[in-house]
Amino acid sequence: MKVALVYDWVDKFGGAERVLKVLHEIYPKAPLFTSVFNQSKADWAKDFKVIPSFLNKFPLAKTYHELYPYLMPLAFESFDFSAFDLVISVTSAQGKGIITKPSTYHLCYCLTPTRYLFSGYNQYFQNKLLKFLSKLFLNYLLNWDKIAAQRPDQYVAISENVRRRIKKYYHRDSDLIYPPVNLEKFYPDKNKTGDYFLVVSRLVAYKKVDLAVQAFNDLGLPLKIVGVGSQLSSLKRQANNNIEFLGQLTDKQLLGYYQSCRAVIFPTDEDFGLVPLEAQACGKPVIAFKAGGALETVKKGITGAFFYPQTPIALAKEIKKFRPEIYKPEICQQNAKGFSKDNFKKEFKDLVKKIEFGKF
Q1: CATH architecture of 197-337
Q2: What backbone phi and psi angles, to 5 degrees, belong to 163?
Q3: Of 55, 206, 265, 315, which has the fewest Cβ atoms less than 10 A away?
């Protein structure tokens, strides 16, 4: 069976990219189709055969694909998948809009329905002038997205949270396969201890890292922040001396910070979120905003705690109550094992076998 992979854009590294690396382990010969490919920011893709669209030749597209939202649909519709039996799209945007012939099965591993058109619309367009000026092309993208959402033969959601959104916005049913946490890379070390709290995140607005910065400014407790993004400079200006920014780390470097922290702070409403599971795989509890994927991966009072509402005051209140000694590293690790890479591979292979034998 000839397999192809599709992803929205290859220009960063995060949870979706970790999923793609595991899919590459299952299907090492599968090429990866994408709108734009920035090799300098996607070292993780060096083992893939990456096939970018015509958009890759446009000025600044590799670095600022956001400049061409109106061309993204055409970029994905331009690919020819007639040589493949199965196409797996991993997408939170236009990747699901590829066009396949009846002989090619399109399986969509949906990270979320397009965030800036649906669940994240109000966050992306808080500025009324920007919302007004964007209305015309947003209506075009919204209409296209609703049509494109009917193209996959089957949906697989990354969480119950996303499963509900797929039903709500696309009126499609979906299976559920949780993304994998790599237990070979993330594990406890009882000999490592530290007195700091940890945030691991891309530094963009919807991740709400500013909320953690404000809370720790008030608390005066040590906080280390791993990640880069458009808000890095702004967050550094806001932060007091008790907050340290570590930038982008390798998995090996990140492991040490996970193993030594008191707890990981997860302030965002995430579609799923691998960070809480990586923390638990290292035997560490999580203090998470009570919403989204964290509700499926963190067990209250057993592997972590929740704060609500999504404010610095609520987070600071929960941190003041936090007692690390009540959380057992082995229980945190055991919870993470339920989301292992082996489980993901087995569930995905089983699903594809059913497709092969025409049981859908």
Answers
A1: 3-Layer(aba) Sandwich (3.40)
A2: -60, -40
A3: 206
Could you tell me the strand order of the sheet in which 263-266 lies? Answer: 243-247, 223-226, 197-200, 263-266, 286-289, 304-307
User: Residue 306's beta-bridge partner residues?
Assistant: 288
User: Which residue intervals of the chain bear CATH 3.40.50.2000?
Assistant: 3-180+341-356, 197-337
Q: For residues 269 and 267, what is the distance between their CA atoms, to the nearest angstrom?
A: 7
Find out whether 155 and 320 touch, Cβ atoms under 8 Å.
Answer: no
Altogether, the residues listed in the chain come to a count of 360
**Cα–Cα distance between 310 and 300 in angstroms, integer?**
17
Q: How far is CA 233 from CA 54, 196, 230, 247, in A?
A: 33, 22, 8, 11
Nearest to 284 by CA among 188, 179, 184, 201: 188
The 8-class DSSP code of residue 169 comes to I
Name the CATH code of domain 3-180+341-356 (choices 3.90.1150.10, 3.40.50.880, 3.40.190.170, 3.40.50.2000).
Answer: 3.40.50.2000
Q: Which residues pair with 90 in a beta bridge?
A: 7, 109
| Identity of residue 149 | A
Tell whether pTM > 0.85: yes
Q: Rg of the chain's alpha carbons, rounded to an integer? A: 21
Measured between alpha carbons, how far apart are the two ends of the chain, in Å?
A: 17
Say how far residue 256 (Cα) sits from the centre of its chain: 22
Reported as a single tens digit per residue, the pLDDT across 25-48 is 999 999 999 999 999 999 999 999
pLDDT, residue 134, reads 62
Query: How confident is the model over 202-229, as a mean pLDDT?
Result: 96
